[in-house]
Amino acid sequence: MAIEFTKLHPTFGARSSAIDLRQAQEPLLQQIRDAMDHYGFLVFPDQRFDFQQQLDFASRLDGQLHSKTSAAAIAKNRFGNEALTDISNVGADGQVLAHNDRRRMSGVANRLWHTDASFEDPAGRYSMLFARNLPPVRADTQFADMRAAYDDLDPDTKAQIAGYTVRHSIVYSRHVLGFDFSAEESARLPGAIHPLVRNFPETGRRSLYLASHAERIMELPVPEGRLILRDLTEHATRERYVFSHEWQLGDLVIWDNRTTMHRARPFDDTRYKRELTRVTTLDLPRVPAL
User: Fold this and answer.
1) How far apart, in whole angstroms, are the C-alpha atoms of residue 257 and residue 40?
2) Using one digit for the tens of pLDDT, what is the confidence trace for 33-57?
3) pTM strictly above 0.85
4) Superfamily of segment(s) 5-281
5) What residues does each domain of the chain span?
């Protein structure tokens, strides 16, 4: 069965036609991978995943799952599997988290522009976020096109940043907002170094690899490197590169963390419940399923 895609933004993103992904196998999975290479993020409406089905689909589509999350360093996963990340404001008792709960305070940082698992090596490739319970108000997720942002840089800037590498640390990004991990928690989240510009031979394109987790450019003094990262982020998140997704119950959104950044938009999360589950795959060679 072929999937049809409707473009959502002039440079990236698409919405799929009706499809049930719970039993998706090859060659349908390859159609999705090809669309990801082209669009960067995809919206699949009206999905019906239980927890295990979401995990199984992610594994079939893209291989090994990311489980060393920052949430896992703070509290036990209420679903019993660290690969199923709890992107919500609800505790194990089913109630909205208190305003000063550490899980909530850490999650507030999702409002910063970021890429999932850039603080790991290997880093995150695809993230798959599923809407299970939504508030009665808008609580959008925004995406920014890092390939288009790179394409629009002037030649001198492209030459300047070509060989730079960046240290990514979620301990750093949380600290900027005043949230501090304990020494034990920080030891579980050591950070990682990645190129500032990522190359994609399969498409012939390049992408900026930025995030709130981007702590410093390794080849430069810290102040200069941070200014460059700030300027690039300001450039890459201008309106022309950004799409806001208004969630509907049952939406599954898949994005490529290597070619997009994203951020959550605020809502009254001490009043309304919002429950989404995310699975992120690692940027490793795919092993064909048996």
Assistant:
1) 8
2) 999 999 999 999 999 999 999 999 9
3) yes
4) Clavaminate synthase-like (3.60.130.10)
5) 5-281
